[in-house]
Amino acid sequence: MPVNDTLGPDTVIAYIGIGSNLDGPVQQVEDAIEELGHLPLSRCELVSSLYANPPMGSQDQPDYVNAVVELHTRLQPHDLLAELQSIENRHDRKRGDVQWGPRTLDLDILLYGKQELNTADLRIPHPGAHERAFVLYPLLELRDGLSIPGKGEIKELVKQVPKGRMQRVDSHT
Fold first, then answer.
1. Does the predicted TM-score (pTM) go above 0.70?
2. How far apart are CA 135 and CA 46, in angstroms?
3. What pLDDT was estimated at residue 59?
4. Do residues 68 and 17 lie in contact, with contact meaning Cβ atoms separated by under 8 Å?
5. Which of the residues are catalytic?
6. Which candidate, 133, 135, 138, places its Cα nearest to that of 160?
7. pLDDT over 90 (residue 98)
8. What is residue 4's DSSP assignment?
9. Cα atoms in the Cβ-side hemisphere of radius 13 Å centred on 64
10. For residue 84, what are the contacts with CB-CB under 8 A and spacing of at least 6?
11. In 3D, which of 140, 133, 136, 129 has the Cα closest to residue 162?
12. What is the DSSP string of 89-139?
């Protein structure tokens, strides 16, 4: 849904999930937050705390560090995805066949306004976002009135998803 701010009338609020578990994950996440602040036609409005949590999938990899950014943007969803993938590539992101494997940086469009999208390369809201503590708790921290289209309000969804071993971590900044 458009918001009225300095970027213009067609600005959309998007939420970007950030994760890393390789090559200094805290620094990787912090650097990605900085880079998101330089995206064209966009502005980082809010940044959640950083959270450490066990990896999804194979447990024989380091814990992840995750955060969520509220991004006000005029980029269309696929253009935003291309920008996020460019940042990942600068962080030596390796794409392989292993789902939920270790990575230097993972950037996901969690929400894009109230839009729902299902294409070959992009699904919004992000699949599984409503079931993942490392997504829900940072979103709740940023905006307690948020909803995930088709899934419900964040403040209700967190009641079904325990934090488990997820915990806040100190950032370098």
1. yes
2. 15
3. 81
4. yes
5. 93, 103, 106, 108
6. 133
7. no
8. E
9. 26
10. 16, 107, 108, 109
11. 133
12. HHTT----S-TT---S-EEEEEEETT--EE-SS-EESPTTGGG-HHHHHHH
> How big is the chain, counted in residues?
173
Number of neighbours of residue 41 by Cβ within 10 angstroms = 16
Could you identify the residue written with the tokens 């469009």? 109
In the chain, the amino acid numbered 72 is H
Tens of pLDDT, residue by residue over 99-137, are 667 889 999 999 999 999 999 999 999 999 999 999 999
Give the list of residues 6+ apart from residue 119 with CB closer than 8 angstroms, or none.
78
Burial tier of 63 (Cβ tally within 10 Å: 0-12, 13-18, 19+)? middle
162: three-class secondary structure by DSSP: coil
Cis peptide before 55 (omega within 30 of 0): no
Q: What is the mean pLDDT of residues 55-62?
A: 85
